[in-house]
């Protein structure tokens, strides 16, 4: 019923390619039956769907290489896919008909505790990495909300963030090397697996490239020590404005919390209905504030934060009493998106960024968009980063309401850019933000990016139809570039 | 007298180009007199020298753009140059005859305290950035030893590190956007100036590209809060082995010091002779250990470190009593390279990396190389990072000794690679490490890097003859790539 980009179509496969692929990955490593292929029709971005013609599930880098070499010979484009938890349609199987799914590549090849790094294959689940090294006092810091399902390959492709991005940085800050199968089936290693890089930083380019440069089959990940102690606090406010002013004040006080998350009234109500954590449903907004570090300093920092919260109008600030309460609090936050399903038949999560100080302004703009388009919009986001996630609630069976939802989302992103921000913080561009990318960058900037992509993927067969408005190979024309306004 | 790459030659300038450049930058912005040009014959890597044909000192991005456009029309290659403090010959004016020196671009265009960022032009001195924002409780974290002279443009080009890299990361971790003048004179902005990047991470590629992609004219830099408190300690050991075991033990205890530096007997003696700090000259090695953070936690952490030091054989551990003593300690460390000038007529500083746990092994290899080649080698390095800086002492008037110095340096780098490390930690490749780059990467990896460079610099006119063994444009042939061994 959705009026825009309803269902896309994959291009046809040449005769014989499916058999050739089956010979490489074995009969249990290929999906060709229509019912089974439907599982792969979209990721967490459901506004556009496309059923692939064939899905392969290789077990080794060698198999990935042979699959891509076969696709290369046949001239067939492909889509890398991890766990399918992406939120911008990055693994939509259109126009490419062949999905290369790395979810069966689940080995942790090496754990190097002394040098704090681990080599994980693409299909290793994010949370598994931290589980494996916890006994050694280490963790893998990036923690997307989907961390119990999403995989390292997808995290690298999307350069995923998470609540703890504020203190620890996003995926790219924790990837020391990647093993990449190029679109012609050749295997390269980028990065040397140690912190100080040598040569051009190609690892950084592949992080966040959303599969447009080939298939990442393994990554060397940096580990960080588990903090000695963690304190998690919940602060309750009457208004979103008070909560955002508190965020600015905490940061201005020189405190870098491990996480600083906000949920507004709409989200709190949904989360409370789903998880019964005990959130006050009459609150205008709540902040989840986590600090970590040495035991000795933590109590003092927590007290300072409590004072800042109270000064800025918090009606209540409470510290999680124990690990169970802390876990419950985070579960509520991390499953907020799921809980929202109770509020409306459909919802669309936007992902934008503004400089932290512009949070009050963007929230006012979101409220204005909500009123103008007669739509409920909930807000749950990484406040410390300025990374907003307005959730636009609508009913996709109503074309007019759907159109208004789309318009509201677009207005919010334009507002992010006007306030000096960006149109995606952590969900990627995929198919969702292709148009918006053109708002942030001029044609000359995009041409430069396309030419970099063409270095890895000269034929434009690696996840075409993503990121850039028009798929395909390198645009060679050199349009005049915009004068930089830094 | 040095037998290798003694003096290089710049190619000749076409007639009229110098006049055209003078018209752009004005008579006070161009250097053409032989005596003045000699100042630009090398950077901190003095083994190779080349006098440029012309040096321009533009004041604005517009002037840089017009200079590069003129060079483009004339088909002339150019060398970007900052303060000339580089250590690998990255701004050697050969074969390119035209030096574009950004040292007069000294504006700090914007200070955004609330969002913790600053826009600095390429010629702003590193330490100046921190000075400007200190009153606001902020700092720019990367702190190369040359920070009172080196400039942001050069820091970006070399992706510079420093003692505080251990905790805070290198330059690329603190650059949110760059303004880059491409080799044809067009100006682009890479990155959007906020932490969560959008599109491919081209900022990361330009950081550390050593000027081979154009001239960086400004950068948006991330600021971090000044720590509430800092404690700096000096630990004295009888042997280097005890000191490196202590380094491993501190890290293994889950402590991340702000800095963790080692100096061996040779360096301590030189530093003491120069600065009279009061170092025990009979010590086999000293560690400078700095921790920072909240006041409350710091004393406990310092005590834990003191215990670890004592357990591992430290004869003495002392905390800097006040800011003056702390400053003196860092001054000694940061000027160690200069102090070494007292020990021998010539010295060559190597820059390599090993995984932290392999420090004892690499130090044993350095000692063996020292004995085998009958050369004194001092060690001063970022121990926490595994980033070694053996300083090979020799007399360049003695060709045999010079040859042995070169051989020893090369052996040490090969040993770094054998131990799973890298051939440069923070000094870059420049002309010094071009051969060694080929030890770390296969021809296929280098071809990929060359093709990325060609996206920015299709004619190969941006700092040719650096990084890659053979200068020039993109190598289009696709040699078989090595199977990755991650």
Describe what you observe in this structure.
2 copies of one chain form a homodimer. With 486 residues, chain A is α+β, with helices and mostly antiparallel strands. Helix content of chain A is 34%, strand content 19%. The first copy, chain A, is built from 16 helices and 20 strands. Chain A has a 7-stranded antiparallel beta sheet, with helices on both faces. In chain A, a hairpin with a 4-residue loop joins strand 5 and strand 6 (117-121). Chain A is globular and about 70 Å long. Residues 1-6 and 471-486 of chain A have low confidence and may be disordered. At the A-B interface, strand 8, strand 9, helix 7, helix 8 and helix 10 of A face strand 8, strand 9, helix 7, helix 8 and helix 10 of B.
